[in-house]
Amino acid sequence: MAAARRARAADLAGLLGLYHASEVSAAAEGARAEAIWRETLGWPGLALFVSEAEGQVVASAMLVTAPNLLRGGRRHGFLENVVTHPAWRGRGHGRAVVQAALAEAWAQECHHVLMQSGRADPAVHRFYEGCGFLPGLRTAYVARRPDRAAG
Q1: From CA 116, how far away is CA 144, in angstroms rounded?
Q2: pTM (2 decimals)?
Q3: Helix/strand/coil (H/E/C) assignment for every residue in the chain
Q4: CA pair distance 28, 32, nearest whole angstrom
């Protein structure tokens, strides 16, 4: 059975390997990746979860929580960067990191956890629905930085 844990400082190389092997946008590299990783690990309200198999990081999910004056003061949760290595899909690793993130959100008294997917694959949407996410309750809008291309 797949299990998840909080990411540690030593996980950077494994995460970068996971991101390079998966169909996600380009990952930061080198000194820039190291600086971002240090910032990530120290950022209040941010938790990154990983699942491992055969000594490598095979799935990740990032939970960002934010304070909220509405909803009785209960926090917002945002799920991002859910990635599972293509060779390890369908084995519970993605579900493990998502469940760990949701458990953390509920422990922090989040009102809800929002997530978006840019993937058109119906299997991806079935996966999120199977993890407890309900489609169609909100409409997502995206504002892109004017001087940047997609990615």
Answers
A1: 15
A2: 0.92
A3: CCCEEECCHHHHHHHHHHHHHCCCCCCCCHHHHHHHHHHHHHCCCEEEEEEEECCEEEEEEEEEEECCCCHHHCEEEEEEEEEECHHHCCCCHHHHHHHHHHHHHHHCCEEEEEECCCCCCHHHHHHHHHCCCCCCCCCCCCCCCCCCCCC
A4: 6
- Of the pLDDT bands very low, low, confident and very high (cuts 50, 70, 90), residue 24 is confident
Q: In terms of residue numbers, what domain contains 126?
A: 4-130
Domains: count for the chain: 1
pLDDT, tens digit, for every residue of 29-58?
A: 999 999 999 999 999 999 999 999 999 999
Q: Is the pLDDT of residue 66 over 70?
A: yes
| Contact between 65 and 111 (Cβ < 8 Å) | no
Q: Which CATH number belongs to the domain containing residue 33 in this structure?
A: 3.40.630.30
Cα–Cα distance between 133 and 94 in angstroms, integer?
14
Tell me how many degrees the CA angle 3-101-34 measures, rounded to the nearest 5.
90
* Structure-token pair, residue 92: 């519970």
